[in-house]
Design a protein that fits this description.
It is a single chain. The chain has about 400 residues and is mainly alpha-helical. The protein folds into two domains: about 1-180, Up-down Bundle (Growth Hormone, Chain: A); about 195-385, Up-down Bundle (Growth Hormone, Chain: A). About 85% of the residues lie in helices and about 0% in strands. It starts with a helix and ends with a helix.
Length: about 400
């Protein structure tokens, strides 16, 4: 099964690399295009917002396409957009190219997820999904640091060429090795948005939005938060990103078994609390390289370990809406990334890059409050269902 899923994993790796790599080359982008770092951060916003908005739209418009066609079309748009990003001469055109890249990515990741699930029997579907989504963890651990290192040595435009090449290889792999996967049943807009009418699902999606807005505030402007530790050296920043990515991959993989054992609430509370504290102390931990390494390691472990328990909560609340709610959860992550670009840019002007972690930590704290309110609703609903079951049984006795 792993061999069949590898083309999908590599496609997700390409998209994940593009999602994370821009943060590592922001200073060079800002210098080359003669804009502020805060303005350059809007490249992340443009990409993420395009992804979040277009993901459900593409799912409807391409409902009758085979998964292979969706993936290859999305990767083609993605590759062309990154090539254009490397070639265009000014900031406005670069923003437009990032939007186009986000549109291509919006077709690839959900398409790869659906394709991966369809290639596995029901009893192995979760394992298949974990293999496909592993591409995102590997992108965080390897793709983004490698792209940052390339940009540090050869300029940020070379990073875009690198991302385009990865996307092209992924497309070739899907064209040659992925079996034909027909289109899934179409889902109308009213059904797709139905989970938003469930307050427990809506609040869980809200906590996802808050957690990942806070997470990406620091990720987008990591070069500014840890500028004292890196001394402005892109190669040192790439190593920091590598440490964060490896820790994030460990957190992502490890949170699954821990959630199965201890439940999603405990993992959410612990991870969000640790992340909030870690972010809040970055004005001090970011002063030295040794403490910066510790800070990004804790950030990776805690911040990225939230994905699995949040997904687990969504599925537990409404198993019949799992596919829809997980899709919306992915959109919330990218909306959070787009908001983080704006929030972080405002923070740069108001308090400076070294203190952005405080803003990120505040988002984690508010997200934790929302998650705990959700847990209270879940308990009330479970109690009400138990009471409804108990009353007929009592009447019969």
């Amino acid at each position: 099964m792993i061999r069949r899923l590898l083309p999908l994993t590599f496609a997700v790796f390409a998209i994940g690399t593009d999602s994370f790599v821009v943060a590592g080359v922001l200073p060079d982008v800002a210098h080359t295009l003669q804009v502020s770092v805060g303005s350059a951060g809007q490249l992340v916003t443009a990409y993420s917002l395009a992804y979040a908005v277009c993901s459900p739209l593409i799912a409807v418009l391409a409902a009758n396409w085979s998964r292979n066609r969706v993936l290859l079309t999305g990767l083609a748009v993605f590759v062309v957009a990154n090539v254009c990003t490397a070639l265009v001469p000014n900031f406005t055109l670069v923003i437009l190219c990032r939007i186009l890249a986000g549109i291509g990515a919006a077709a690839v990741t959900p398409g790869a997820t659906v394709a991966g699930a369809s290639l596995a029997p029901p009893e192995k579907r979760a394992a298949a999904l974990s293999i496909v989504t592993a591409g995102l963890s590997v992108a965080t651990a390897l793709g983004a640091p490698l792209g940052t290192a390339i940009g540090s040595n050869y300029g940020w435009r070379s990073t875009m060429w690198f991302v385009a090449a990865v996307g092209a290889v992924a497309g070739i792999g899907i064209a040659l090795f992925l079996q034909k996967i027909p289109a899934p049943p179409a889902v109308p807009w009213t059904r797709r948005l139905a989970p938003l009418g469930n307050p427990r699902l809506a609040l869980t999606l809200g906590s996802t939005l808050l957690f990942f807005t806070g997470n990406y505030v620091l990720n987008t402007y990591i070069s500014q938060t840890f500028d004292r530790a890196t001394g402005g050296a892109g190669s040192t920043l790439a190593v920091l990103l590598l440490v964060s990515g490896i820790a994030g991959a460990i957190g992502s993989f490890g949170s699954g078994p821990l959630t199965d054992r201890y439940g999603n609430r405990r993992i959410i509370v612990i991870a969000a609390t640790v992340a909030a504290i870690d972010f809040a102390v970055t004005p001090w931990s970011g002063a030295l390289l040794s403490t910066a390494f510790a800070a990004v390691a804790v950030w990776g472990l805690s911040g990225f370990s939230l994905v699995v328990p949040l997904q687990h909560r969504l599925i537990s609340i409404s198993p019949q809406d799992a596919q829809l709610s997980i899709s919306l959860n992915s959109s919330m992550i990218f909306i959070g990334a787009s908001l983080a670009g704006v929030v972080g840019a405002a923070g740069l002007d108001l308090i400076g890059g070294r203190y952005l972690g405080i803003i990120g930590g505040a988002f984690f704290a508010v997200g934790l409050i929302v998650a705990e309110l959700t847990q209270r609703l879940i308990r009330r609903q479970a109690a009400a269902q138990q009471e409804a079951v108990s009353e007929p049984q009592a009447a019969r006795t």
